[in-house]
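@channel sequence for tomorrow's demo:
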Amino acid sequence: MTLTRRRLLALGAGLALSGCGSPPPRPLPAAASPSAPSAWSIPVSLPPPWASPPVTRFDRGLRAAVGRYLQPTPEHPEHPWYPGAVCFAAVDGHVAAHFAAGDAVRYAAGKSELPPAERVPARPDTLYDLASLTKVFTAVLALRLLERGRLDLDAPAARYLPSFVDKPGITVRMLLTHTSGLSKDTPLSGETPDERIEHVLRQPPVAPPGTGFLYADQNFIALGAIVAELTGERLDTLVRTQIAAPLGLADTGYLPPESLRPRIAATEGPLRGTVHDPAAAAFGGVSGHAGIFSTAADLAVFGRTLLDGGGPLLKPSTVELMRTDANARFGPAAAHGLGVDVDQAWYMGRLAGRGAFGHTGFTGTSIVLDPRRRAVLVLLTNRVHPDAAWGGINPARKAAADVLGG
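structure tokens (generated this afternoon):
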């Protein structure tokens, strides 16, 4: 029976991870287990320091841009665009702004506002559900395998993923660039995480592979499965050992422990510290397309590392490949590198146009990296709190980017 969104949100709060059913041909190490050790216990090093002194001329404009959307506006009069936000900006290695505004928790069940004394203010170190920003981390893990000769971008994905045996025309590169023809919908069925993942991987494409751009979570669900298959490790472990640990990202990972809950921004309904994305929740909280939680400061270090040539993560030539538009034949709206958007002014504002790259997340998150100015802009909001149907925040993303790009 296909799972509804309401049922999946309930599952996300407490999935039962055992059950019957036939496993995939080669079981993937992606499904979480109550007895598995937490990847958050993996030690991390200290992050490298930012250059000093800070760049202060952008701070006031960024605070005004972010603050404007903490309240209703004429084009959005019924409620604030988002209850809270954290912004981190840097230019040429110098911090330009790092501040929190509004609330990490503002609403009670039933979407009623909590009394001011019961709200939880957003703080600079508040963790947010990154949603699709997770895809950038998955792309980095895949490109690390490319550098080691373990992964061929132009090989059929079926070479690495038996579940793709009936989709020989889809390559790994197509998964990274959303040109596989897989559907933007993610049909979920099955009683266990493994069964649900397998059901998604078995879905046929809805368009001929390589004939157009269609953004689809299914691409990165499959890519995450390939990474787990080739490494024999779960994605939560890989993110902590291969990305968070060498960069010192102490607040980045899947499945945050209960001890971090007081610092986590609420999302939709009762969710706080449990992944919002229904498919990621159905897979046990760990997937290639969604599931990572992080802070603005951690994401800024991750972004700076990519701007600086990859550091301990990737070679400079690989980062260059990652941020180069691979979809030019499909027009500027489809501009996409390997796991990142390229020059999308609808949220990158004035930073777009000269090779800026980044990503957004459904929960209200975004990162923009501008190699021209070595600019990093991270905006994390919980715009889905208390209701994802209350609207998007692209104007806020663009307004902040316009300040940094002005």
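heads up for whoever presents: The CA atoms of residues 45 and 145 lie 23 Å apart.
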